[in-house]
Amino acid sequence: MKIFCCKDRFEDILTCIYDAWSCALKEGHDNIRLVREPVWQQSLFDEYIHVDADREKTEKVIRSIKKSISNQAYLYVFYASLSVEEDALQAIYNFLRVGFAVGAEVCSMYANPHVMRIMELKRRIGNESHYFREFARFTSLENKVYVCHIEPKNNVVTIVAEHFADRMPSEHFVIVDDNRRLAVVHPKDEELYFMYLTDEEFDVLSRSEDFEDEYTRLWRTFFKTIGIKERENRACQRNMFPIWMRKHAVEFKN
Fold it and tell me: Contact at 8 Å (CB) between 148 and 140?
């Protein structure tokens, strides 16, 4: 068994799929597996092949999916690539095996386990990104730039950032994924871009949460006064806004 490994980044994932598929044409798809790094426990009799990102291979995979399957299938693949599930990379590969065989109708093959798995991953990514679109909290730094920190389980910062770029096109803002030390930067009236933060950059941005502006105080006051004490339901609140999501929500900070 040949096991192809790569970093948890979109270009690396698609390059890994490209190299694994090329090998499968000789070895057979059933003799190929794909995993994301780090690989904690390697098996003795398998061959592990590390793959680095290659822009040309990435673009070839994207073109092939859109042309031979559909744009919707590419969306499924993109969402699944953001998942932290251990089998996400293999699930993408299995889905593409079916997709390249049958074409665009793969997205409606709900009885196929590989299709259902990719749709389940997409649904989970969509749900989590929806939560963070609702519960993202921005801090204004000297009325010049807005900074937001989130710690999602899955890598949904891209989807969240696109949502705010559409709604705040004329604002400078930065959304930081503290788990992955990934920042999405939106300059005023320009396109988003992504950057992986150094330790120094991350420490500087982490201090942004120490700042408070008038809107921070107003929001806390609103949160405390809008509730009706007799109707307080902590269990319902935890269901609608899970505790693990509250770390950067100003209304829950002392």
Answer: no
Please choose, from the candidates 208, 188, 221, the residue with its C-alpha nearest in 3D space to the C-alpha of residue 148: 208
What is the structure's pLDDT at 123?
A: 96
Decide: 114 and 97 in contact? Cβ < 8 Å. Answer: yes
β-strand 2-6 against 47-50: which pairing, if any? parallel
**Predicted TM-score (pTM) of this structure:** 0.88
Q: How far is Cα 248 from Cα 222, in angstroms, rounded to an integer?
A: 17
Cβ atoms of 79 and 35 within 8 Å: the answer is: no
Q: What is the pLDDT of residues 41-84, one digit of tens each?
A: 778 788 999 999 999 999 999 999 999 999 999 999 999 999 99
Counting as low any pLDDT under 50, the low residues of the chain are: none
Q: How far is CA 177 from CA 33, 114, 163, 185, 248, in A?
A: 29, 30, 15, 11, 11
> How many angstroms separate the CA atoms of 140 and 209, rounded?
10
Query: Among candidates 225, 215, 226, which has minimal Cα distance to 250?
Result: 215
Identify the three-state secondary structure at position 9.
Answer: coil
Task: Give the integer Cα–Cα distance in Å for 104 and 214.
Answer: 52
Q: How far is CA 202 from CA 181, 184, 207, in A?
A: 7, 13, 9
Q: In whole angstroms, give the CA distance from residue 88 to residue 15.
A: 15
